[in-house]
Amino acid sequence: MPSLPPQPAGAPQGPQPAFWPILLAGAAGLFVLAALLLLGRLDLLSAAIGGLVIVATAATLVFVSDRSAEARYAAVIRAAEERAGEPPPYAALINALPDPIVVISATEPDDLTSRRYIFANSAARQLLRIDRPQGLLVGVMRDPEILEAVDEALFDAKDAETVYEPGGSQERTLRAYARPLGLALDGRRLALLVFRDETESRRVERTRSDFLANASHELRTPLASLTGFIETLRGHAKDDPAARERFLAIMQAQAGRMARLINDLMSLSRIELNEHIAPDEPVDLVACVSDVVDALSPIARERSVALQVVQPERWPAVIPGDRDQIIQVAQNLLDNALKYSSEGDIVRIEVASGLSGEGAAAGAARGVARVPLLTPDQAGETYAALRVTDQGPGIARENLPRLTERFYRVEGQKSGERLGTGLGLAIVKHIINRHRGGLVVESAPTQGTTFTAYFPLLTAAAAERPRPRVAKVS
């Protein structure tokens, strides 16, 4: 039970020093009256009686004031006893806030055990694993920077803040704000500790910085190559027709690489701009895949790679979407498979329909790692899936979760002209996310790779149902 407040001034437990002079004055007045009667000084008797009345009135007022103060203090004591152990009046308000919030009290600067949490909202209890309504602060928080910030708020009446990383299986970064709240009724110092989750904002900032650094690097390489060849052509190679043609061909390839990179950057930017808006036009997934296969068949024949297309037998594969973006998904996945296929390989392109979310994402063979790269958040949907399987070198399990990162390339993979801008799978992921779909990769070294993109089917019920909010993806 919390300690009761000290007795306030003016609430005495007995007669106070201010009451005794009045009693003495009253006694002296009575003595004067008696003396005047004995001496027969009736002319002074009326004045003495008036003074005595004044003294009696003052004594009465002091007595009533003391009794009133005692009554008020008793009421405070009763209210404190009744509220002991009950949630504070602001509990409902703080519990409704999403940020973790803790109210802390303390009395002695040099005594850590005097620092107690007296209230924590549900978010704070979950963050700090608090299972009691009140307790020692050091029992739930041992971060020295947090404790120092709390002390500044408690004993220096200053605002303080610091960074807090709770640890655990998920990497999280929070900013902690400590704010002074003044004194409680019983004299304890109070402070408010608020946590604000900065994990997502820091991730976005880190992604932006990495993106700018990688984009600059990717553009710098072909630019440096172009500059070098231009200098060579202006020098000794300008009179050598064979060297000139060779250098011009390389320069054209580097310029094409820069153009593809810029196009991919602009495409990714446009997709992200409208990613929160789900497209709703009917799109035939089979028709989109057929168009892409027709467009890339010459490249497959040039590399002696066979394309095997499998279409759904019963279910239609019509999805709500943006046809151009669905074609881009199919093209990027098929182009990626062709890049890592060798002569004589087979690339399988399969369209399936009428699948549950689990069915669309399942299918890894024995010994093959399966990693979801994007999972839709709605349940009960029926999906159409596009699976693209190659017989390439495969990918180690530790590299699979990073495949959709911008500019990420697997170490040890083929290099040269076949490699793209490093943005193809990132574009695929963002397009699928805009369509409220999912993406899964299955692969193992020497066993090829399968990418499965799946999208909600367009049904009468789905057309009338509001589209879910898009998830944030990097």
Automatic annotation (TrEMBL):
Domain of life of the organism encoding this protein = Bacteria
Record's catalysed reaction(s): ATP + protein L-histidine = ADP + protein N-phospho-L-histidine
Which coarse location class describes where this protein primarily resides? Answer: membrane
Annotated transmembrane regions: 20-39, 44-64
Q: Name one GO cellular component term.
A: plasma membrane
Residue ranges of the Histidine kinase domain?
A: 214-459
Pfam families noted in UniProt: HATPase_c, HisKA, PAS_8
Q: Where does the record place it?
A: Cell membrane
Q: GO annotations under biological process? A: cellular response to phosphate starvation
Give the EC number(s) listed in the UniProt record.
2.7.13.3
Top enzyme class of this protein?
transferase
Gene3D superfamilies reported for this sequence: 1.10.287.130, Histidine kinase-like ATPase, C-terminal domain, PAS domain
InterPro entries in the cross-refs: BphY/WalK/GraS-like, HATPase_C_sf, HATPase_dom, His_kinase_dom, HisK_dim/P_dom, HisK_dim/P_sf, PAS, Sig_transdc_His_kin-like_C
A GO molecular function term, named singly, is: phosphoprotein phosphatase activity
Keywords from the named record: ATP-binding, Cell membrane, Kinase, Membrane, Nucleotide-binding, Phosphoprotein, Transferase, Transmembrane, Transmembrane helix, Two-component regulatory system
Which SUPFAM superfamilies does the UniProt entry name for this protein?
Answer: ATPase domain of HSP90 chaperone/DNA topoisomerase II/histidine kinase (SSF55874), Homodimeric domain of signal transducing histidine kinase (SSF47384)
Tell me the protein's name: histidine kinase
Provide the taxonomic classification.
Bacteria, Pseudomonadati, Pseudomonadota, Alphaproteobacteria, Caulobacterales
